[in-house]
Amino acid sequence: MKGPTILVVDDEPYIRYVISRKLQRAGYEVRTACDGVEALQLVAEVGAALVITDLMMPNMDGFELSAACRADPRTREIPIIVLTGSVVTTAQIQRKMESLSNISCVRKPFSPRELLRTVKELVPEGNGNTS
Amino acid sequence: MRKRASRKHDTDGDAPKDEGVTEGVSFKVASSRGLLFGGSASAIVAASACVLLAVQAWHSDQVEPSLIVAAISVAIGTLCGWQLLFWRFVRRTLDPVNEVASRLSSTAQADELHPLDTKERNNVGGFVGSLDVLVSAAKEARESSLELEFANRVLLHERDRVRSVINSIGEGVLAVGLDERVIFANRAVEQFLSLPANEATGKPLHECVRDPHVASLLNGDGDMAPDTGDGIEVSLERHDSSSAFSVTVSTVTNGGNEVTGKCVVFRDIADTKRAEQARQDFVNSVAHELRTPLTSIKAYVELLIDGEARDADAQREFYNVIYEETDRLNRLIDNLLNMSRMELGTVVVNRTPTRLKKLIEDSLAAVESQITKKQLQLKVDLPDRLPAVEVDKDMMNVVLVNVLGNAVKYTPNSGCISISSTSTPDEILVHVSDTGIGIGEEDLARIFDKFYRCSAKPNADVPGSGLGLCIARQVMRLHGGDIRVSSRVGEGAQFTMVIPRSALVTSLGDYEHEGPNDSGR
User: Where do the structural domains in chain A lie, given as residue ranges?
Assistant: First the structure.
C-alpha cells in the first residue's frame, strides 16, 4: 500500500533528489515540481498530504504558491513546509503568511533527517493518500 | 545740481535743502539791491527838489541867477556824490555775498561738499558760518545716505544669494510663519505643492500642500506636533506612484528663544529607498545562492554519514554532487568578489598583448569536459589569422568561459555549440552560438542584470548564480567593448563579444600572425 503523497517543490535538482530519496525510503509517495506553477497544477490534479516548497523559485515563488494553495478549497487544508535560504527571518515569513495557516518553516541548509522528523509530525506514515 | 539730484532722487532729501540755501542767498542779494535802488531814488528825489526849487526861484525873479545855478550844481553834485557813495557801499556789501552765493552753488554741484571758505568774512562772516553749518549737515546727510544705499545693495545681494542657494538645493523648502502662512517656497518644493511656488507665498500652508495626508499632519491634525523638539521626520512611502518622500519640520527661532515660524523640508527618498531595496535584494540573493550548494553538500554528507548509500555507485554519485557543489560555491564567491571589485572600481585591468586565438582555445579547454559529458558537437570557425589584442588575459578568460559555459548549460544533450570570429572596420567580434532553449524577449532585456536568471521552465534544472553574464558585460565594458545577445525561444542563442580596434596590438609583429606557419617569422 502506498504511503501519503508529498509534493516536493524546488528549482535545485540535487535538493529535490535528496528530499525525495529520504521521504521515499521512509515510505512516502513523492511527486516533484521545479516551480510554483508546476506544483500548483500537480497539487490540484493529484492532491497531496503535504507540500514542501522552496521560497525563491522562478515563475512562481513559495509565497505565491502557499497563497494559491490556501485560496483553493481543494488544497486549503494541506500543510506546507517552507524551505528558505534567504535572509528573511522566520518571523518575517510568518508575518507575510499570517493569513495562511498550517505553514512551518525550515531553514536552509537543512538536515534531511530533521526534515523527515517534521514531515512525520505533520503526516504520520500509513495514513494513506488524503486526496 | 541737476546731476546730483538725479543720482539721489530715490534715496534722500538733501537736494531740496541745498536749493533752499541758494534761494535764501539770492533773496538777500535782491533785498540789498532794493536798498541800493531805494537810496538812488531818494537821491534823485532830493536832486529833483533842488531843481524844482531852482526853477521856482527863476520864475520869481527875486533870486540871483548865479544862486540858481549853484543850487542846480549842488543838486547835481549831491546826486553824483550819493550815487558814488552808495555804489561803493553796495559793492562792499554785495561782493562777499555774491561770492558766497557762487561758491555755494558750485559746492552744491560738486561731488564732495566742502566748507565755503570765503576770503572776506568781515561783514558776512556770520552768514557764511551759518551756511557752513548747513553745508556740513548736508554733507553728513549725503554721506549717510550713501552708506545706506551701499548697505541696501549688500542686503539685496545677500538676499538674492541666499534665495538662489535655497532654490538650487534638491530638497523642497517651505518657510512658514506663526500664522501658518507660507513665507517662502523654493523651486524644488513645487512637486509637493498644489500650486506654483511663487503663488504659495502668503497662502495658508495646508492649502498649498498637495498630499492631503501631509497637509493634515502639518496642520497638527495628526500625531505630529511640529512645535516640539528640533525636527520631526515623517516618512511617507507611496508605493502607488513609486515615490517616497520624507517631511521634516523644524522650529525657526530668531537667534534667541523666540519662535518665529517653522521650516518644512520635503526630501525625495525614492532613490534611497530603491537603492536600499536593491541592496536588500542583493544580500538576499547572495544568501540564497550561497546556501543552495551548501544545502546540497550538507544533505548529501548526511546521507553518507547515515549510511544511506550502500552501494559504491550511489556513494560515488553522492561524492560527485558534493564535489560539484563545492566548486559551484567557490565559483560563486569568485564571481561575487570580481563583481564587487568591478563595482568599486578597484579592479585593475592588466592589459597584455595576447593572441586572441590562444584566448579562445584556453577557454574552450576549460569547458571541454562539460561538452563531452553532454555529447555536444563543437564547431570552431576561426580565420587562419586572428589578431593579437591588448587585454586582461584572466578577465577575458572569465568572459569566454562564462559565455561558453552558458551555451553548454542551456543546450540539451547532442546539441551544437559554435564559436567564430569576424571583424568590422571598428571592431573585432567573437560569436558564441548554441542550439539550446533560447531566451525569451522579456528575459533578453534583463539577461545581463545581476542575479537575473531566465524564467523559461527547463532553466530551473540548470544551476547558476545569475552573475556570469553580468560580469562578462562589465569586463567587456572595462575593455572599451561590449557583449551583445540575440535569441528566440527554442532557436538557440548567439552571444557576441565586441573588442574595439583600439585594443589591437599593432606594433608587435610577433603577435600579428597566428598558426604554426607563421611562427617562424
Answer: 5-122
**CB B471 within 8 Å of CB B413:** no
ipTM above 0.85, yes or no: yes
Distance, in Å, from the CA atom of B79 to the CA atom of B50, rounded to the nearest integer, reads: 10
H or E segment at B388? strand B388-392
Instruction: Assess B298–A contact: CB distance below 8 Å, yes or no.
Output: yes
Whether residue A35 and residue B457 make contact (CB cut-off 8 A), yes or no, is yes
For the domain spanning A5-122, the CATH number is 3.40.50.2300
Q: Name the pLDDT band for B241 (thresholds 50, 70, 90).
A: low
Average pLDDT over every residue of B38-45: 74
Chain B residues lying within 8 Å of A18, measured CB to CB: 296, 299-300, 303
Across the interface, do A87 and B283 touch by the CB < 8 Å criterion? yes
Window from A40-54, B30-44, B353-367 with minimum mean pLDDT: B30-44
Name every residue whose Cβ is closer than 8 Å to that of residue B407 and which is 6 or more positions away in sequence. B417, B432, B433, B434, B436, B493, B495
Q: Which of B67-76, B206-215, B483-492 has the highest mean pLDDT?
A: B483-492
Q: Which of A8, A10, A18, A116 to mutate to test the interface with B (most CBs of B within 10 A)?
A: A18
- What is d(CA B15, CA B10) in angstroms, rounded to the nearest whole number? 11
> What pLDDT is recorded for position A91?
67
Residue B214: domain span = 170-268
The verdict on residue B218 lying in a domain is: yes
Above 60 in pLDDT, residue B357? yes
Residue A9 at interface with chain B, using a CB cutoff of 8 Å: no
**Which of A24, A83, A108 is most worth mutating to test chain B (most B CB atoms within 10 A of its CB)?**
A108
Distance from CA of A115 to the nearest CA of B (A): 10
In a domain, B410, yes or no: yes
